[in-house]
Design a protein that fits this description.
heterodimer; A: 572 residues; alpha/beta; 6-stranded mixed sheet; 4-stranded antiparallel sheet; 21 helices; 12 strands; elongated; B: 580 residues; ABC transporter transmembrane region fold; 17 helices
C-alpha cells in the first residue's frame, strides 16, 4: 500500500476533504430519524400541531440541500484524487519499467508490463474513488447510527453493538476470501492479453500455417479459464449482500423486542422505536451499497498489490560498483576474464573472455548460432552485467560508469530493429535530440539509407508503429542511421545488416570505416568481417581465437571452416 | 449517436439471447427477493403498532410479526444470492463470447487492416473494453432489474396503504428520472473522450514497453517520460471529467429523495393527526421506510445508467471491431487440392497505397518444381511478391495463379496449406517447443518431429533447454534470433508442403550451421516449387531462374551463369559480395 499512499500524498488535501465532506453529508442523513422521532412524539402523539410538523419537514429539506452540497464537493475531491493517483501510478510505473535492466525485462515479460500500466491502474482508480466515497462514509453511517441509537435509548442501542461487529466480520470475511480469487482472475486476464498481442504480431505466420481456428480455440480455452475464475470469485462476493441483509433484519427483530420491553416499562415512547428502526434501516441501505462495491475494492487491492510489486523492484542502478581505479585508458574496450550467465540460464553464455580493443579499431565477432555473439557485445554498454571478470570502456569498469554515460558513448544497433511511430526524422532524432537537418541527412547517407528517404518522402516520411511500412532492410538501415546520429565513440552492429544485400552492406562498411569510431560488427558473414582489425571467433561461449582474417585463416580451424562454407561454393 | 446506441443495444441483446433461461431465472429470484425485502418494512410497521405505550404492548401479535419477518428474510436472502449467481453466470459467459468473437475477428481481418492499426489499440479493445463492458452489464443486471421491481412494488403497496400519500411520491418521481437522464447524456460524451485518450496512451505504452530494450539502448527514457506525461495529463483531465460528472448523479437523486422523504413525513403526520388513529404511527413508519426503499433504487438505477454509459461506449468499440469488414469469404470457392505448384504472375499491378504504385505489369511463370530466386536491393518489392503469393494482400490489377487457378478463386486455407513459409521475421508463439514445431503438422509423430528438428540443426539446443521439447518459449524470451529461425525452419521441414517460400530464411543463422541446414533444405526443395529471397548469393546460385528486381519491377531474369555472362545489375551485385 505504500506506493498508493505516497501517490496519494500529492492529493492529500483532496483525499482528506472527500471523506470529510462525505462525513458531513452522512451527518445530515443521521439527523433525519431524530427529526422524525420529534415529529411523531411531539407533533403527532404530543399534539403540538401542524406548525411543528411543517417546521420539522422543512428542516428535513434543509438537511437535504446541505447534504447535496456536501456530497457534490466530496464527489469532486474523490474523483480528483482517484484520477490523480491513477495518473501518478501510471507515470511511476512507466518510469520504473523504463529503468528495468535487460534481465528484469526478460523476467517480467512485455504483456505483464503493459497490463500493469493499463487495466491494473484502471482498477486501482475505481477502487480509490470508491474507497474515498464509501469505505469511509459507510462506517460513518454505521457507527453514527449506533451513536445516535445510544442518544435515543442506551439499552436498545445494545442491539446495534451486537450486530455491527457481526456485519464487519461478514464484510471482512467475504473480502478476505475474494482477494486471492481476484488475483487469480487478474493473472488469467494477463494470459488473455498475451494471446491477443501475440496473434496481432504473428498474424502472417498464423495465417500461413492456417492456424486461425486453432488459435481461436486456444484463445477460447484461455477465456474459458478466465470465466471459471471470475465465476468462482463471483460466487463468494455475491454472498456479502444477502448476508448483510439477513443480519440487519435479525437485528430488526431484536430491536422491536427490546423496544417492546422498554416501551412496556415506560422507559421510552413509540417515537423512539420508530427512530431506532430508522437507524437500522439506514445501516441496511448503507451496507447494501457497500456490498456492491466490495467487489470493486477487492479487485483494486489485488491489482494494487501487483503494481506495488513492480514498483518495489529496484530498477537498474546507474552505477553498479565503485571505481576500481581504472585500467589502460588507451583501450576503447577491454574484457578481462569475463564470464556471464543469464538469470536461470544454467550454463554460462560466455566463458573467460579476454579481449583488448584499441580506439578506432574495427572488431568482427563471428561464431555459430547461440555461440554468445550478442551476449558479448551486450556486455559493453552493460545491458547485462558480467557475472565474473571486468568489462572496461576507455579504461573504466563499466560497472562504475553511469548507464547514461555509457550508452551515450556506445551506440548499439540491435538484432531486432525497432522503429517507432512518427516520422523518419523523429526516429533519427532518438540518436541525438539536438541534431540538425544536416547531421540527420549525413547519418542517413552513411547508413546507405538515402534511397529509403527518397522512397518514403524524405525525413518527414511517415513511420507507422513498429515501422511496418518499411522492409526489413530499410528498417535496418534507418536503425543504423539512428545510431550514427548519436556519433558514438563505440558503435556496435549486432548482426544488424543481415537484411542488406551484399552491395549495400559493402558500401555501409566502407562509409563506417571513414568515421574513425571503434566498431564492433557481429555477423554471420565472413565477407562482412574480412577487413576487420580483429576478428573474435566464438564457440559455445568461448573465444577460441582472436586475430586478423589472414591469421585466423591460418591458425583457426573453426574460422577456416566458417569461411570456406561461405566462399567455396561462391568461388566455384 | 442515438442510432449508434440502438445498434449497440441490439448487439448486446444478441449476446444475451442464448442465456435467456438464466435471465428468466434471475428475474424470478429477483422477484422473490424484492417481495421479501418489501414485506419486511410493512411487518415492522405492524410491529411498531404493537408497541403503543407503557403497559400497552401486544406481545402475542408481536411474535407473529417476528415469525413473518423471519420467513421473508430467509426467502429474500436465499433468492438474492441465487439471483447474483445467475447474473454472474450470464455476464461472464457473455464476456467470454464477446471476447472470442472479437478475437475470431482479429484472425479474419485482412492484413491490410491489421497492418494499419496499432497492436496495443486493438488489444485494449479485446481486454480492457470487454472488461468494462461486462462490469457495466453485471451492475445493470444486479441493480437495474431489482431496482425497477422495488420501485413498482413499493408504489403498489403505498397506493394500497394510503393512495393520497403515494400520489405525492408519484408526482415527485419524474424529477429524479429527468435529472438522471440529463446527467447521463452528458457523461456519455465524456466517457467517449476518455476512451479515446486511453487508447492513445495504451498504444504509446505498447510501443515503448514492447521495445523497451531499444529505448534503453538509446537512453530515450527521458524523452519518453516527457511524451508520456503529456498523454497521461490528457487522460487524467478527461478521466476527471468523466468520473466526476458520472458521480454527480447519485447525490442529486439522493437530494430529490430527501425531498420526497420530507413530503411523506409531512403528509403522513398530518394524516395521522387528522385521521384520528386510522392512519397509525406504525403506518407512518412503514411509509417512511418505504420512501427510503423507493428512492434507493433510483440512486442505484441512476448510478447504473452512468456506469452503463461507459459500458456502452466500450461495447460500441467492441462491436465496431467485431463488425469490421473481414477478408472476402472463401465460401463457395474451390479447394486447391493437390498441386503441381506452377505459379504465374499475369500482368500484376500492386501498391500498398494508391498514391505510390509499387508493382506494375509484372509477368512471370514459375514452373512446377522449379527453384526461383528473387534478388535485388533492399526495398525493391521482394517481400511484396510473397504477400501476393500467400494472398496476404490481393492484387490491384491482373492475377496471381497457382496451377492455372486465380488465387482469388480458391480457398485461402487450401492455398496456404500448399505453401510453406520461413520468414526473416521469426515469430514464435507462446507455448512449448513441441507446439511450435507441430504448428503445420499437428499429427506428426515424436520421431518425425525430432527428425525435422535434427535436420534443421535445432535438436541440439532444444535438448539443452530446461525441459527439452516441452520447454515454454515465446515472447521476448531467451532464444536468440538464430535459434528462433532454426525452429521456424524445423517447423516447415515437418509440414513438407509442395511449395516453399524462403524469405531470408537463414539470415540469422551462422554459415556453418546454415550449410548443414541448406543440405536439408536442398533435400526438402527437391520436386517443390520454391521462392527464395536471399542476400547471400551463394544460396541462390543453383536456382533454376533468378528474378532480379529493382523498384518493383523485374529488370533481369535467367540462371546464375546467364546473368553473370550478361554483366548487368546482377553481376554488379555479385561482385560486391567480394568487394571490401
Amino acid at each position: 500500500m505504500k506506493h498508493l499512499f505516497s501517490c496519494l500524498k500529492r492529493y492529500r488535501t483532496e483525499a482528506i476533504l472527500a471523506p470529510l465532506f462525505k462525513f458531513l453529508e452522512a451527518c445530515m442523513e443521521l439527523v433525519v430519524p431524530l427529526v422524525v422521532a420529534a415529529i411523531v412524539n411531539r407533533g403527532v402523539n404530543g399534539g403540538e400541531g401542524t406548525e411543528f410538523i411543517v417546521h420539522g419537514c422543512l428542516i428535513l429539506v434543509a438537511f437535504g440541500v446541505a447534504g447535496l452540497a456536501f456530497a457534490l464537493t466530496a464527489q469532486y475531491f474523490a474523483a480528483k484524487a482517484a484520477v490523480g493517483v491513477a495518473s501518478e501510478l501510471r507515470e511511476r510505473l512507466f518510469v520504473k519499467l523504463q529503468s528495468f535492466s535487460y534481465a528484469q525485462i526478460d523476467r517480467t515479460g512485455t504483456s505483464a508490463m503493459i497490463t500493469r500500466m493499463t487495466s491494473d491502474v484502471n482498477q486501482v482508480q475505481a477502487g480509490v474513488n470508491m474507497t474515498l466515497r464509501l469505505l469511509l462514509r459507510s462506517p460513518f453511517i454505521v457507527f453514527g447510527a449506533m451513536v445516535m441509537a445510544f442518544i435515543v435509548d442506551a439499552q436498545s442501542a445494545l442491539v446495534f453493538v451486537a450486530v455491527i461487529p457481526l456485519l464487519a466480520a461478514v464484510v471482512a470475511g467475504v473480502m478476505a476470501a475474494c482477494l486471492p480469487l481476484y488475483r487469480k482472475v487478474q493473472n488469467r486476464l494477463d494470459k488473455v492479453y498475451g494471446a491477443t498481442r501475440e496473434n496481432l504480431s504473428g498474424a502472417r505466420v498464423i495465417r500461413a500455417f492456417c492456424k486461425e481456428e486453432d488459435e481461436i480455440a486456444r484463445f477460447g480455452a484461455r477465456t474459458e479459464q478466465l470465466k471459471r475464475a471470475q465465476k468462482r470469485a463471483g460466487l463468494v462476493s455475491a454472498l456479502s449482500g444477502p448476508l448483510t441483509f439477513a443480519l440487519v433484519n435479525v437485528a430488526v427483530i431484536a430491536l422491536l423486542y427490546t423496544g417492546a420491553l422498554r416501551v412496556d416499562g415506560g422507559a421510552i415512547g413509540q417515537g423512539e422505536v420508530v427512530a431506532l428502526y430508522g437507524y437500522l434501516s439506514q445501516i441496511l441501505v448503507e451496507l447494501i451499497k457497500f456490498a456492491n462495491f466490495i467487489v470493486t475494492v477487492t479487485r483494486a487491492v489485488a491489482c494494487q498489490k501487483r503494481i506495488g510489486k513492480t514498483l518495489d523492484e529496484a530498477g537498474e542502478r546507474d552505477v553498479l560498483a565503485p571505481s576500481d581505479g581504472g585500467g589502460d585508458e588507451t583501450l576503447a574496450v577491454s574484457f578481462e576474464h569475463v564470464t556471464f550467465c543469464y538469470e536461470g540460464g544454467g550454463a554460462p553464455a560466455l566463458k573467460d573472455i579476454d579481449l583488448r580493443v584499441r580506439r578506432g579499431e574495427t572488431v568482427g565477432v563471428i561464431g555459430g548460432t547461440g555461440a554468445g555473439k550478442s551476449t558479448l557485445v551486450n556486455l559493453i554498454p552493460r545491458f547485462y552485467a558480467a557475472t565474473e571478470g571486468t568489462v572496461r570502456v576507455n579504461g573504466a569498469d563499466v560497472k562504475a560508469v553511469s548507464a547514461r554515460e555509457l550508452r551515450r558513448i556506445v551506440g548499439v544497433v540491435p538484432q531486432k530493429t525497432a522503429l517507432f511511430k512518427g516520422s523518419i526524422r523523429s526516429n533519427l532524432l532518438w540518436g541525438d535530440p539536438a541534431a540538425g537537418e544536416e547531421t540527420l541527412l549525413e547519418a542517413a547517407r552513411r547508413a546507405q539509407a538515402e534511397d529509403v528517404l527518397e522512397a518514403k518522402g524524405g525525413l518527414d516520411g511517415e513511420v507507422v508503429q513498429e515501422g511496418r511500412n518499411f522492409s526489413g532492410g530499410q528498417r535496418q538501415r534507418l536503425a543504423i542511421a539512428r545510431a550514427l546520429v548519436k556519433a558514438p565513440e563505440i558503435l556496435i552492429l549486432d548482426d544488424s545488416a543481415s537484411a542488406l544485400d551484399y552491395a549495400t552492406d559493402a558500401r555501409l562498411r566502407a562509409s563506417l570505416k571513414e568515421l574513425g569510431s571503434t566498431v564492433f560488427i557481429v555477423s554471420q558473414r565472413a565477407a562482412s568481417l574480412l577487413h576487420a582489425d580483429k576478428i573474435v571467433v566464438l564457440d559455445e561461449g568461448r573465444a577460441v581465437a582472436v586475430g586478423t582474417h589472414e591469421e585466423l585463416l591460418r591458425t583457426c580451424a573453426l574460422y577456416r571452416e566458417i569461411y570456406l562454407t561461405q566462399f567455396k561454393e561462391a568461388s566455384v | 449517436m442515438k442510432r449508434a446506441t440502438k445498434d449497440t443495444a441490439r448487439g448486446i441483446l444478441r449476446y444475451l439471447k442464448p442465456h435467456a433461461a438464466y435471465l428468466v431465472l434471475s428475474a424470478v429470484f429477483a422477484l422473490v427477493a424484492v417481495a421479501g425485502q418489501l414485506v419486511v418494512p410493512f411487518l415492522a410497521g405492524r410491529g411498531v403498532d404493537c408497541i403503543v405505550s407503557a403497559g400497552n404492548v401486544d406481545y402475542a401479535r408481536l411474535s407473529r410479526v417476528f415469525l413473518g419477518i423471519g420467513l421473508c428474510v430467509a426467502a429474500a436472502t436465499a433468492s438474492q444470492w441465487f439471483m447474483n449467481l445467475c447474473n454472474n453466470r450470464v455476464v461472464y459467459h457473455v464476456l467470454a463470447d464477446v471476447r472470442r468473437d472479437a478475437f475470431r475477428k482479429i484472425e479474419k481481418l485482412p492484413l491490410k487492416t491489421l497492418d494499419a492499426r496499432a497492436y496495443g489499440e486493438v488489444a485494449s479493445v479485446v481486454v480492457t473494453d470487454a472488461d468494462q463492458f461486462a462490469e457495466g452489464l453485471l451492475l445493470a443486471f444486479t441493480q437495474f432489474f431489482t431496482g425497477l421491481l422495488t420501485i413498482f412494488g413499493v408504489l403498489g403497496i403505498m397506493l394500497a396503504l394510503r393512495w393520497e400519500i403515494a400520489l405525492i411520491v408519484v408526482v415527485l418521481t419524474p424529477a429524479s428520472l429527468l435529472t438522471a437522464r440529463f446527467i447521463a447524456s452528458r457523461t456519455y460524451r465524456m466517457f467517449r473522450e476518455q476512451a479515446v485518450a486511453r487508447a492513445d496512451q495504451t498504444a504509446f505504452i505498447d510501443e515503448m514497453i514492447g521495445n523497451l530494450k531499444t529505448v534503453k539502448a538509446y537512453g530515450h527514457e527521458d524523452e519518453n517520460v516527457f511524451v508520456f506525461r503529456e498523454k497521461n495529463e490528457t487522460l487524467r483531465k478527461s478521466s476527471l471529467r468523466a468520473v466526476f460528472y458520472s458521480s454527480t448523479t447519485n447525490p442529486t437523486t439522493r437530494f430529490i429523495n430527501s425531498v420526497v422523504y420530507a413530503a411523506v413525513a409531512l403528509a403522513g403526520s398530518l394524516f395521522a393527526i387528522g385521521s384520528g388513529g386510522a392512519f397509525s404511527v406504525g403506518s407512518l413508519t412503514t411509509f417512511l421506510s418505504y420512501s427510503n426503499q423507493y428512492t434507493r433504487p433510483f440512486n442505484e438505477i441512476s448510478e447504473v445508467v452512468a456506469e452503463f454509459q461507459n459500458a456502452l461506449a466500450c461495447a460500441a468499440r467492441l462491436f465496431a471491431l467485431i463488425a469490421e469488414e473481414e477478408e472476402r469469404s472463401d465460401e463457395g470457392l474451390a479447394s486447391l487440392g493437390e498441386v503441381d505448384g506452377r505459379v504465374e504472375f499475369c500482368d500484376v499491378d500492386f501498391s500498398y497505397t494508391p498514391e505510390r504504385p509499387l508493382i506494375e505489369h509484372m509477368n512471370f511463370t514459375a514452373e512446377a518444381g522449379k527453384r526461383i530466386a528473387i534478388v535485388g536491393p533492399t526495398g525493391c518489392g521482394k517481400t511484396t511478391l510473397i504477400n501476393l503469393i500467400m494472398r496476404f494482400y490481393d492484387v490491384v490489377g491482373g492475377s496471381v495463379k497457382v496451377d492455372g487457378m486465380d488465387v482469388r478463386e480458391i480457398t485461402r486455407v487450401s492455398l496456404r496449406k500448399n505453401v510453406g513459409m520461413v520468414l526473416q521475421d521469426t515469430w514464435i508463439k507462446e507455448g512449448t517447443v513441441r507446439e511450435n514445431l507441430c504448428m503445420g503438422a499437428p499429427n506428426a509423430t515424436e520421431e518425425e518431429m525430432i527428425a525435422a528438428a535434427k535436420a534443421a540443426r535445432a535438436h541440439g539446443f532444444i535438448m539443452r533447454l530446461p525441459q527439452g521439447y516441452d520447454t515454454e518459449i515465446g515472447g521476448e524470451g531467451t532464444l536468440s534470433q538464430g535459434q528462433r529461425q532454426l525452429l521456424c525452419i524445423a517447423r516447415v521441414m515437418l509440414s513438407r508442403p509442395p511449395m516453399l517460400i524462403l524469405d531470408e530464411a537463414t539470415s540469422s543463422i551462422d554459415t556453418r550451421t546454415e550449410r548443414i541446414v541448406q543440405a536439408a533444405f536442398a533435400e526438402l526443395m527437391r520436386g517443390r516449387t520454391c521462392f527464395i529471397v536471399a542476400h547471400r548469393l551463394s544460396t541462390i546460385e543453383t536456382a533454376d531462374e533468378i528474378l532480379v528486381m529493382r523498384d518493383g519491377s523485374i529488370v533481369e531474369r535467367g540462371t546464375h551463369r546467364e546473368l553473370l555472362a550478361k554483366g548487368g545489375f546482377y553481376a554488379e551485385l555479385y561482385e560486391a559480395q567480394f568487394a571490401g
